[in-house]
Every structure is written in structure tokens, then in C-alpha cells.
Amino acid sequence: MLKNGITCTIQSNVLFGTGDYETQIRAMLEAYDASGMRAAVSVGAQDQGWIVYPQQDEAEFLAGLPEDVRKEFGTPPGKERTAYAGDAAATVALMDRLLADYGDHPRIHLLYGPAGPQWLSDGAFKVLADGARQQDVGFHLHCLETRAQHAALQRLYPEGVLEHLDGLGVLGPKSSLAHCVFLTGRDME
Predict the structure, then answer these.
(1) pTM listed for this prediction
(2) Quick check: 39 and 7 in contact, CB under 8 A?
């Protein structure tokens, strides 16, 4: 990025399912610090939509796959799926730890970064929104980016995804939404 003249960025959702998200996000933060760049770094979160979204379509999707492929993609019985730091409470706790080290940094800012509305449940969004208010951080997520995401979000949130996110306490002056290709006039308002 520096070779191309980029000195400021929002970093979102690079690491996933590594088993050691905190170590990897800390390495990323250290790299931004060493580079001298200004960066808003998103702490990822996901608790649904593991294979397809909306989540309620996953069982039907898996049932349509050949058995050997289904075994590869399906969760083994008794094994929970986790991403990033784990559940919403673990994500808030990780944010607390990161803020202890980077909260006063002059060039690095932290925010919550679920990749998109379809990958986080309402309950998890509420936990993160409460955490964001207490920690004085914002949100960054991709929204209405692709036709598939747009169709899924229309099904999930018939009242409109932005209205829904606003009702959960996600939107505000510290929120950043990327892409927004399929915004409606009502969304823009």
C-alpha cells in the first residue's frame, strides 16, 4: 500500500478460522504501527451463515450435495463452528484487550467488523452494539454489496437492512458501511 501512495486504510476481515485470531490481529496491528500508516482495523465477528446465507438455507443446501462433499462442508456432530474470537462476548473481551494496548494510539483505531449483516445474528449484533457504546468504538461492515447479499438481506430484513441495523444500535456517527451498491432511497435517508 505504501508503494502505491496509500497512507490510510480501513482493514476488514482478512483472518478467519485460524484458531488464534488474537495473535494474528495483533501482528496486523503491529505491522500497521511499524509502517507508520493510519489504519482503522476491524475486529471480525460471525455466528451464522457458515456455508450459505441466509443460515436457514444451509440444511437444504447441504442435503443437495453428494455425501462426500457434504461431509467436507458439514460440521461434524458435536463440534461447534467458531470464527474470529468466538462468540460475541469473546469478541467484546478481545476488543477490551486490544483497546488496552491500542486505545490511545495516534494512528490506529479499532472497530467491530462483521463482514456483513447476514453473518451475524441479531443477538450478537446487540452484544457488540452494547460493547461499542461502552468502549466508544464504531462498526465497519460490507452491506448490500452483491446481488446474492441483496437478495438474502431482503429476505432476512423485509423492513430494510439499514433500518434493522439502526434498530439494533449498530448505525451511528462511528459506523462505516462499504460498497452499498443496492441502497434504496429509503436506505439513503
Answers:
(1) 0.91
(2) no
